[in-house]
Amino acid sequence: MEAIKQWTQSISAKPGYEAWKQATWTSQPLGPGTHGWIVLLQSNGQPVGYMVIHAADPNNPTKYRLTEYGSGNTPLFSMQTLYQSLVQLELMNTSYHAERLYTSPLQAVWKITSGEDLYFIDAKTGEVLPQLTVSEKQEFDKPLEEQIASLLKPEHTITGSVQLPEFDPYERLPWVKGTPAQYGSISALLSDLDQQKKLTYTAQLFDDKVTIPLAVTGYHQWSNNEVFLLLEQKGQRAIPYGTTFQLGKLYP
User: Fold this and answer.
1) How many CA atoms lie less than 13 Å away from 40 in the CB half-sphere?
2) pLDDT of residue 147
3) Cα 85 from Cα 222, distance rounded (Å)
4) pTM to 2 decimals?
5) What angle do CA 115, 116, 117 make, to 5 degrees?
6) What is the spatial distance between Cα 111 and Cα 209, in angstroms, rounded to a whole number?
7) Residue 246 has what pLDDT?
8) Are 147 and 128 spatial neighbours (Cβ–Cβ below 8 Å)?
9) Cβ neighbours of residue 173 under 8 Å, at least 6 residues apart?
10) What is the mean pLDDT of each run of 10 residues along the chain (252 residues)?
């Protein structure tokens, strides 16, 4: 697919993504009716990252947009991560059905059905989510379009970037009792990151049942002026700033 080739070429020029230059890829569909796919990249037989792409126009199957991407050996919707979760749930020797569901970058899950039992597993970390209510389960029936509204097309390229050191968001806990940062514009945020300011991104998901604090490790700015924040979560995740802004807060 030419779109994946173009995105791979642009992203592989950035630190942490060098292995993408020789990578091969496979893809699998995401959930029913989402017009989305998970693209898993491998180099020398090892996972090196992923992309999530969606149809730019459901009526035109040749046009795509890049929703998120990331590097590392534990990509989104990794079969190895799923296997470890199924072992934990003692489901490996049972009959089960696994389905990939993608509501938004921070609400991507495996839906596991085993008999009358239903489990939701975080597609990045493998964490088994708490029991969800009926309404929370229905959130996965369709993606929240405004939360995955990246307009990144194959012809766009990365024009600016900053890579910051990783850190443990649990070392200091400003996101527990502190005051979130207030940015009047995206340029103010990028200025802080340009100056190596340490920020923690925190989102509360599933009616506040799950809190995730993630280290901000930089950004990629694309030629359409779209900014993807780089977040550390068992490898780097590049998520559109517009999505992170809707779903969580930044703490200095």
Assistant:
1) 19
2) 54
3) 35
4) 0.92
5) 95
6) 17
7) 87
8) no
9) none
10) 95 97 96 88 97 86 90 97 94 90 90 92 93 63 58 94 95 86 94 97 84 96 97 97 91 94
User: Does residue 240 contact residue 231 with C-beta atoms inside 8 Å?
Assistant: no
Element (H, E) at 230: strand 227-232
Task: Report d(CA 194, CA 189) in Å as an integer.
Answer: 9
- Identify each DSSP E strand in 56-146 by its residue range: 64-71, 97-104, 107-114, 117-122
Cα–Cα distance between 72 and 125 in angstroms, integer?
12
Give CA–CA dist 8/17, Å, rounded. Answer: 9
Distance CA 109, CA 101 (A): 5
Structure tokens at 46: 């090892």
Query: How far is Cα 69 from Cα 39, in angstroms, rounded to an integer?
Result: 9
Distances (CA, A) of 211 to 131, 139, 167, 202, 204: 15, 17, 18, 7, 4
| Residue 247 tokens, joined | 């779903």
3-class DSSP assignment, residue 76: coil
Secondary structure class of 8 (helix, strand, coil): helix
Across the chain, how many H-helices and E-strands are there? 6, 13
Q: Which helix (H) or strand (E) holds 222?
A: strand 210-222
